[in-house]
UniProtKB/TrEMBL annotation:
Gene3D superfamilies: GntR ligand-binding domain-like, Winged helix-like DNA-binding domain superfamily/Winged helix DNA-binding domain. This is Transcriptional regulator, GntR family. SMART domains: FCD, HTH_GNTR. Transmembrane segments: none annotated.
């Protein structure tokens, strides 16, 4: 059986609490697929890997539980959440509601500098084929479009939803060969934002995320057949 500590690099950032730093490394391992769905996370192995006590490890696992990446079971302890069609549907439905609202609040406040930076991010995405960096740039692109609304609580909720769906999005961006289609939609969304065309922007954004949801559901169902 694969052990947890074989996948964790013990190089921790200094500007966060120890539980946060442990959670960050475990989160990366889950999102990258190094820690698989259904795999037990043994707290003693994690503590040893990070040269830490059990207390910050338990706190780190609770952080991941709140982000939907880990579940606790009575007889097994912490276990990595398995991929779930139901979870995809719910997360994307929530994302669509939140991000439509954020775009409505932001679109008329977007500056030329912000729009040019969003285009710069898309051009960087054009040149990439690694899902980790694509996912990061994808979030940054959307954050630029939403950030002008200056609603920090809303932006934080969107970031939380992104964390919950990130491991699914990496499948979408690479395994389904959907990156070119996703990019085309990104450029259409950016153009609508430049034109301050809210109706078109909301329609494009909704279809953009609905397409990702449909493809991911089809992909997971095909894997379970």
């Amino acid at each position: 059986m694969t052990t947890t500590n074989g996948f964790i690099e013990n190089r921790l950032s200094r500007n966060k609490t120890l539980p946060d730093r442990i959670a960050d490394k475990l989160r990366d391992a889950i999102i990258n697929g190094q820690l698989k769905g259904g795999q037990q996370l043994k707290q003693d192995e994690i503590a040893k890997s990070f040269n830490a006590s059990m207390i910050p490890v338990r706190e780190a696992l609770r952080i991941l539980e709140a982000q939907g990446l880990v579940k606790f079971y009575a007889n097994k302890g912490a276990v990595v959440n398995k991929f779930s069609v139901e979870e995809i549907e719910e997360i994307f439905d929530i994302r669509i509601m939140l991000e439509k609202g954020a775009l409505e609040l932001s679109i008329n406040q977007l500056t030329e500098e912000e729009l040019n930076y969003a285009e710069h991010l898309l051009k960087k995405m054009d040149a990439l084929d690694e899902e980790e960096y694509l996912s990061d740039l994808n979030l940054k692109f959307h954050n630029v479009l939403y950030g002008a609304g200056k609603k920090e609580m809303l932006l934080e909720l969107i970031r939380e939803m992104h964390t919950k769906v990130e491991r699914y999005m990496r499948i979408y961006l690479i395994n389904l060969s959907s990156h070119p289609v996703s990019q085309e939609e990104h450029y259409m969304l950016l153009e609508a934002c430049r034109n301050k065309d809210l109706d078109s922007a909301v329609e494009i954004l909704t279809e953009h995320m609905s397409r990702a949801k449909r493809f991911l559901i089809e992909f997971l169902k095909s894997k379970s057949e």
